[in-house]
Design goal:
This is Cell division protein FtsQ. Residues 1-24 form the signal peptide. Keywords: Cell cycle, Cell division, Signal. The protein has 253 residues and is α/β, with parallel strands linked by helices. The chain has 2 domains: 39-111, Roll (Ubiquitin-like (UB roll)); 114-252, Rossmann fold (3-Layer(aba) Sandwich), CATH 3.40.50. Helices cover 34% and strands 25% of the residues. The protein contains 6 helices and 12 strands. The strands form 2 sheets. Strands 6-5-4-7-8-9-10-11-12 form a 9-stranded mixed beta sheet.
Length: 253
Amino acid sequence: MGLNSKIKSLIFAGCSIVTIGALAGFASSRQNEKVCEKVSINVENEYNNYFIGDREVRDLLTREGERKLEGLPNQNIDLKNLEKRIEAHKFVKNAEVYRGLDGNVHVQVKQNRPIARIIRSDQDVYIDAEGTILPLSDRYTARVIPITKSALVKSSDKGFFQDSIGYSYLSLLQFIEQDAFWKAQLAQMHIDGKGKVTFLPQVGEHSIEFGKPDRVEQKFKKLMVFYKEVLPVMGWEKYKRVNVEYEDQIICE
């Protein structure tokens, strides 16, 4: 390729970039001139949670109706600020606010998902799958496993389920949440003053002494043996307690 051809190619490339930039600027300018006529809100409800709905999201967007978005030109709508405002809500995991080609605003909201509820005299809260503490809601009550705790066990502050000790309890709850059988069968979880876990089942009169939240999968496998091989033979009313705390043994009394 000769020198002239290279120069022509460079000039053509430069002109193309300038043209594209000009078109983008023009399109952006025209977009900013458009007026928002409608706000579309979609709250994802993957886990049948109803902690926040369209009305609550709209109140967050408009500051309780003080500043409606409909009728505003796009240049006066700060999308990032609206996202931050929605994500400040305790039950919002993340939010996306964007503008359509027609100039209207679209909102996508994903809710937090509680997996347990901590109940004690000084604390009544939810925790989600990441160990975040969530408040109770006047709008909806989640059907999750309740956790009672000895007075000797400290309250679960914001960082408890992320530290080295608390995370093991969170891992136990995550395991239960992801297993359809145990999620349905375990009615209550108690943590005693030594940090040991006991479960009460939905079906059966026995208590389940689980011990510390370690070797979780192994303990539940032993417990499944008890449900599949022992109870059908001995009867569901035979035992008052079953202990799977110790390695390589199941204690039934």
